[in-house]
Amino acid sequence: MSTTTPSKTARPFELLRAVTQRPRDANEYLDRMARSLDRIQSILTDDVETQAGPPEDIALRNHADSSIVSSQATTSRRTDSVIYELTDAWAIPILPNGAPDPARGMALQGIMLCDRQVELRGPVAGMSLGSRWLVAGRAEDDVLRFGEVQVVADEQTGESSHIAAYVLPSADCLLRPEILTPKFDHRSGRIVACINPAIAAAWVELGVMERQLIDRVAGCPECDAIVSTRKGCRNCGSVHVDTQPMIHHYACAHVGPAEQFDRGGELCCPKCRAHSLIVGADFEYIQGPLDCRECGWSDSQLEMIAECVHCRLRFPLDQATEQEIVAYHVERLDSLVDDSAA
Fold first, then answer.
1. Long-range residue pairs from 137-140, CB within 8 A, at least 24 positions apart, any chain
2. Would you place residue 160 in the very low, low, confident or very high pLDDT band (cuts 50, 70, 90)?
3. Longest dimension (CA), the chain
4. Residue 30: per-residue pLDDT
5. Burial 9-21 (b: 16+ CB within 10 A, else e)
């Protein structure tokens, strides 16, 4: 099967349809994986003895070595491991900045997944040792899942190749979940994306990421920071507004501060001198004028005021900008890995 390069307009799972082979025996797959990992163990042992290679290669070998130890520890329980055969498989290299490299995308004949061990069936030209790829495939539930893998070995078998790789833990992924969720930046007062918008757009275009609107918030028209809201003075926006209860006497229609009606525990109208007033029968309480302690403004109503958490600008809430808070979702291979580990 020849390598296919995605076009700029087509989605990869439309162009990169793989020819699915029949599932192989689980023991055959595990034996092949064990042989590949044994070979890596031998190479690593030779390299350690000669102390060859730059520091970054040593780190890669240490990571691969830990995977080998884990694999050997589970050899005795091979029959208990869950093997997943993923179809409609394809792969795209991940650049160091987390962006995709669709020009080098390729279709795969299939993916075998067991715990975090992965075998990619080729042709898989260009998958060099240590390189990171985003792979995709469908399990029996027909859900297209994606995972970041790192190549640890390759095996040439006739016209095709078999790449041994491992699924990176979420914490080590360039597209890890916390990067796909926006966060509050205390320095700017904004809710910001943790992933470069251009990179996110590239993954969305490829169908790997799904854009999700999670909220809308009010923003400052000056600096775009989020705002707090409350009722305040219609003139200056201050929350330091005082009011006092008023009494409306039905009989004479007098309206005055409640304290003027108080005569030693008895309510008496200061205008008509009626006494022993009963609330509801003789009078009602009403709200008095609102007086701002900061600017002296007096009014009968308050207004919804916004205040920027960053630049402290106060303004009527209806002048705020509306900002969409967006996160991204990736249907991950991790769910299968976790299931098989359980």
1. 137/86, 137/87, 137/88, 137/89, 137/90, 137/108, 137/110, 137/111, 137/333, 138/86, 138/87, 138/88, 139/84, 139/85, 139/86, 139/336
2. low
3. 112
4. 52
5. eeebbebbebeee
**Residue in the block written with tokens 């200061």:** 270
Q: Where are the alpha helices (DSSP H) in the chain?
A: 12-15, 26-50, 55-73, 197-205, 334-341
Name the average pLDDT for the chain. Answer: 77
Rounded to an integer, what distance in angstroms lies between the CA atom of residue 290 and that of residue 292? 7
What residue numbers bound the domain in which 39 lies? Answer: 12-173
3 located within any domain = no
Q: How far is CA 168 from the centre of its chain?
A: 18
Residue with the two structure tokens 């700017």: 188
Quick one: pLDDT at residue 128?
82
Residue 315 lies in a domain: no
Show the CA angle centred on residue 197, arms to residues 196 and 200, nearest 5°: 90
189, 313 contact by CB (below 8 A) = no
The C-alpha R_g of the chain, in whole angstroms, comes to: 34
Decide if 182 is inside a domain.
no
CA distances from 277 to 71, 77, 139, 247, 258 (A): 89, 89, 81, 11, 12
Tell me how far apart the alpha carbons of residues 14 and 187 are, in angstroms, rounded to a whole number: 43
**Which positions ≥6 away from 8 have C-beta within 8 Å?**
none
CA distance 300 to 294: 16
User: Contact at 8 Å (CB) between 314 and 239?
Assistant: no
By C-alpha distance, which of 277, 220, 226, 219 is closest to 247? 277
User: pTM here?
Assistant: 0.62
- DSSP H or E stretch at residue 234: none
In a domain, 246, yes or no: no
The total of structural domains in the chain comes to 1
Q: Is 253 left (phi over 0), alpha (psi -120 to 50) or beta?
A: left
- Which candidate, 149, 73, 81, 75, places its Cα nearest to that of 118? 149
Spatial distance between the Cα atoms of 260 and 106, rounded to a whole number of angstroms: 87
Tokens of 226: 């989020």
The answer to whether 106 and 12 have CB atoms below 8 angstroms apart is: no
- For the chain, percent of residues with pLDDT exceeding 70: 72
